[in-house]
Design brief:
Structural class: alpha/beta
Largest sheet: 5 strands, parallel
Helix content: 40-55%
GO molecular function, one term: sequence-specific DNA binding
Protein name: Sigma-54 dependent transcriptional regulator
Distance between the termini: 64 Å
Organism: Eiseniibacteriota bacterium
InterPro entries: AAA+_ATPase, AAA_lid_NorR, CheY-like_superfamily, Homeodomain-like_sf, HTH_Fis, P-loop_NTPase, Sig_transdc_resp-reg_receiver, Sigma_54_int
Pfam families: AAA_lid_14, HTH_8, Response_reg, Sigma54_activat
């Protein structure tokens, strides 16, 4: 890495000579000039990162040169120096854009600290610009995909929040539902989009480190604090700050965060001055915050302060055809990445994707398709490409659909023939059994004839038992509406079988 460039403009030769030696010993590349005109000329041709500029020069005033330097390079850090202790000039220099202000005689250590602070400030600004460019690219690529009614409602709220003056928002939802995407949408659709979007995972730090990450510290605040550090709250000024897993915040930090949200002021660790910023704080969590409230692990006042605007993201299993839209989107992404050409989904694979409950939500779907596109060949996603947990559900669905279809056909034929008896099919041995089956059925011989209605009802009870009584999930597996399943269970109950109605 090339050494940082530092330009010193001072009318005292002894100072120029000593500063050159000291700064070069610190690994910096140094040039010196003794007049305002030569200093400005050197600055424009050399473009240093830091300028040490004397206020009083033989041919100019430093306050006249400072604006010209900043116009040439807005990113330069200028440290003004004067022997006159003029407070008014110091204030004016800071207003014009100076990084710092020192009075002669100053200690060399003081100047070195000012230069190092200026260089770190410049590096942080460069990093922020890199992050902003990266986030803009990510936001452009990772738009929120979906057409279901609930997602459309959420996107409408996102637009309203983005255009509002709200300084807090709470995003809840299961892991992998897209809380980070929604955060970026809020930020980049708002007037804050040209300022930073910073992120902090609250579960990744101990309490003592969390405060430091959020609010920063002053030089000398604790052992090892050799320089001032700006926290994420300060770095997010005019922009947005995402606190991910906010339910993991320790109570002590929750109190300090609440005080910050009340008036948008804070103190660095070890500081004694209140600093004001303008930050939109977005909190995200997959935790059940009301439960944490009842357990005393989350402050009620902070919860209600964050919940001024609340968005709950639906799980992927409740988004229907959005699953297919997302799959097609991820195909395009990973086709480009891995130079493949998947562009279709077979009917059986499509059914498997729609039937699977997706406990990991969109993140799980994305990871699955990335693996498939990376490892498999062809243009069509087939059932054989999918893992067992998806294909097993599809097989159950196919059996259930076939049984129900056969029952319907048989009953229709029986109705046409106006036969008085039940429609019977020969069964040598029941393929499925359920703990809820009646003793009468369990005692049937292997050669008994059983009606198709009994076989389908037994299968319904078997599936219900396998999903531990969850009727919504059983309905999805059986290919029925929830009400259709409830109607069938009512008929089963009326026929004398035992059905546990306690679970939904």
């Amino acid at each position: 890495m090339k050494p940082a460039k530092v330009l010193v403009v001072d009318d005292q030769p002894l100072i120029l000579k000593s500063l050159r030696r000291v700064l070069e010993d610190e690994g910096l590349e140094v040039k010196t000039t003794s007049t305002g005109s030569s200093g400005l000329e050197t600055f424009k041709s050399w473009l240093p990162r830091v300028v040490v500029l004397d206020m009083k020069l033989p041919d100019a005033n430093g306050l006249e040169i400072l604006p010209e330097m900043l116009r040439t390079d807005p990113g330069v850090r200028v440290i003004m120096v004067t022997a006159y202790g003029d407070t008014k000039s110091a204030v004016q220099a800071m207003k014009l854009g100076a990084q710092d202000f020192l009075r002669k005689p100053y200690e060399l250590e003081e100047l070195l600290h000012a230069i190092q602070t200026a260089l770190r400030s410049q590096e942080q600004e460069t990093q922020l610009k890199v992050y902003q460019r990266r986030d803009r690219v990510r936001y452009a690529k990772d738009r929120i995909i979906g057409r279901c009614a609930e997602l459309r409602r959420i996107l409408g709220l996102v637009r309203k929040v983005a255009r509002s003056d709200a300084t807090t928002a709470l995003i809840t939802g299961e892991s992998g539902t897209g809380k980070e995407l929604v955060t970026r949408a809020i930020h980049f659709q708002s007037a804050r989009r040209s300022s930073p979007l910073m992120e902090l995972n609250c579960s990744a730090f101990q309490e003592s480190l969390l405060e430091n990450e959020l609010f920063g510290h002053e030089r000398g605040a604790f052992t090892g604090a050799t320089h001032l550090k700006r926290g994420l709250v300060e770095l997010s000024d005019k922009g947005s700050l995402l606190l991910d897993e906010v339910g993991e915040l320790p109570l002590g930090i929750q109190a300090k965060l609440l005080r910050f949200l009340d008036d948008q002021t804070f103190r660095r660790v070890g500081g004694n001055a209140d600093l004001a910023v303008d930050v939109r704080l977005i909190a995200a969590t997959n935790a059940d915050l009301p439960t944490l409230l009842n357990e005393g692990r989350f402050r009620k006042d902070l919860f209600y302060r964050l919940k001024v605007v609340s968005l709950h993201l639906p799980p992927l299993r409740e988004r229907g055809e959005d699953i297919i839209l997302l799959a097609e989107h991820f195909f395009k992404v990973f086709n480009t990445k891995f130079h493949k050409n998947f562009n279709q989904i077979s009917p059986k694979a499509r059914e498997a994707l729609l039937q699977y409950p997706w406990p990991g939500n969109v993140r799980e779907l994305k990871n699955l398709l990335e693996r498939i596109v990376l490892l498999e060949e062809g243009t069509t996603l087939e059932l054989r490409h999918l893992p067992l947990e998806l294909t097993d559900l599809t097989k159950q669905q196919m059996i259930s659909t076939d049984l129900i279809s056969l029952e319907a056909d048989a009953l229709e034929r029986a109705g046409r023939d106006k036969g008085p008896g039940r429609v019977l099919l020969p069964y040598t041995k029941p393929p499925l059994s359920s703990p809820n089956s009646s003793n009468r059925e369990n005692q049937k011989g292997s050669n008994d004839l059983r009606s198709l209605r009994e076989v389908s009802e037994e299968h319904i009870l078997h599936v219900l038992h396998q999903v531990e009584g969850n009727k919504s999930r059983a309905a999805r597996i059986l290919g029925l509406s929830r009400q259709g399943l409830l109607d069938r269970l009512k008929r089963i109950t009326e026929s004398g079988r035992v059905v546990d109605p306690s679970k939904n």
